[in-house]
Amino acid sequence: MKAISLFVLLTTLLCAQQQELTVVHWNDLHSQNLPYQVKSRNRATNTDTTFMVGGSATLASYLKKHSASPNTLVLNCGDDFQGSPISAITKGRSQMELMAMLRPHAMQLGNHEFDYGRETLSSYFSAAPFPILSANIVDKRTNKTYGAPYVIKTINGIAIAVIGIMSPELMTLSLPDNVKELEIKDPAATVNGLIPELKNQKVDMIVALSHMGVEEDSLLALQCPDLDLIIGGHSHTPLFRPKKVNGIIIAQAGSRGRWLGKLALTVDVAKDTILSSNGELIECRTADIAPDSAVAAKVAQLESLAAAELSEVIGELKSDWKRDSRGESNIGNWIADQLRIHAKADIGVQNSGGIRKELLAGPIAVRDLWEISPFGNTLVTFTVTGATLRSMVQHQLTINDDFCQVSGMKIVYRTVNGSRLLHNLKVNNQLVKDDAVYTIATNNYVAAQAKKYFGLDLAPEKVQQFTITDREVLIQGVRKQKMVQSVIEGRIKETEE
């Protein structure tokens, strides 16, 4: 009997040390408050199927379904702002109101939360019914973190520290005025600097809530061995099965509310260790769940602010618009053409990262152009010599993740030892002359970040500002063309010589 009692006691103690935890997470919603259509290819039949996913009310229902257990931690990895007309019209207020209904346990700021300026963003902090984090953004005005550095939540007996971490590239991801007097600290140094403080508070798990991207999260895992889990965003990566780097679990759930991430964990609270994990992405198909009625009503109220104007159909797209951040795309060609034509410039340039949505062939509504170009950046021009243009293009050829789309210009490069080198360059079908002067049309964000995109120190006084936004240029372009057909033309290609 004593042996049985000892066995029961040991089993009870072991079970008490092992606690279950579910982590539910989403990222990069980009104010996709309405459901949208996606296309999926069946490889067996080689046919396409289209269906509807996402929307805030759909996401709310999936959240409710998969976080029903009290043993659930709910996390948002940022970039809820920017992407839809209503976010721009309300300067992000729409998203804060909706997130107040979804109520994550914590939210990490994304770079697009700063798109309406740091003052506008901080004005929402006090009303948010959840902590807004970012440990490595320092406000130079106060010498304190902009947002809370971390939050500790106790769920099912597990003390969990959640540290917020922003991409160190914030200053080049935003207009300078939107992030003025802020400073970004090194992510790994920030996390490692907080570890002793968190261990003194006897936490069982340390989670980085990151808005840096999967590659940067993997590097963070190598540099911060005391982390248990990294829940990420920014790179829009659907990790259908979480990664594990340096023993640390890394998860991310795509973007625009198509997927909800879910992790089932068993935690040893005595050893502060994750014993087992099982992660998945749940596709938020509208056909499989009833939308949350309260959130749906809120979305409808917000959308009513500009519904009639946004629903107007102004043209027809003859072939799918598809993006490519590493080379030429048909949607990029069309956008760059419109900027060049409107400004009467020699060259049009559009950063690929500024093209926020693809579009299937069919009707083009005003809303589509708002969602493709949501930022409200203004049209600008500046002039350069041919020699400077060559240098700019060569710099562009070194960029892998946000290559610019071009108009009026043909770039031919060759690859030498893995590097792309400019072979020849034409403007208006003529080889560029070093002493000639060329006018470039682009948006004010690209001009403000000319060092990043072109390796060019471009003084503000050298930039001519237009009063029209790039989005208005695109809307005018569709209205004029009516039938829009854009294709890949070989504007950027590797030489066959």
Q: Explain this structure to me?
A:
- By secondary structure, the protein is an alpha/beta fold.
- The protein folds into two domains: 17-303, Purple Acid Phosphatase, chain A, domain 2; 312-494, 5'-Nucleotidase, C-terminal domain (5'-nucleotidase,  domain 2), CATH 3.90.780.
- The chain has 16 helices and 29 strands.
- The strands form seven sheets. It has a six-stranded mixed sheet.
- Strand 12, helix 8 and strand 13 form a beta-alpha-beta unit.
- Helix 4 (93-102) packs antiparallel against helix 9 (293-303) and helix 11 (330-343) crosses helix 16 (470-481).
- The longest helix has 16 residues, at 2-17.
- The protein is globular.
- The N and C termini lie far apart (86 Å).
Descriptive keywords:
alpha/beta; Purple Acid Phosphatase, chain A, domain 2; 5'-nucleotidase,  domain 2; 2 domains; six-stranded mixed β-sheet; 16 helices; 29% helix
Q: What's this, in brief?
A:
The chain is 29% helix and 32% strand.
* C-alpha Rg (nearest Å): 25 Å
Question: What is the highest CATH level, the class of the largest domain?
Answer: Alpha Beta
**CATH architecture field of the largest domain:** 4-Layer Sandwich
Mean pLDDT: 94
Roughly what fraction of the amino acids lie in strands?
Answer: 25-35%
Query: Which shape, going by the Cα principal axes?
Result: globular
- State the CATH superfamily name of the largest domain: Metallo-dependent phosphatases
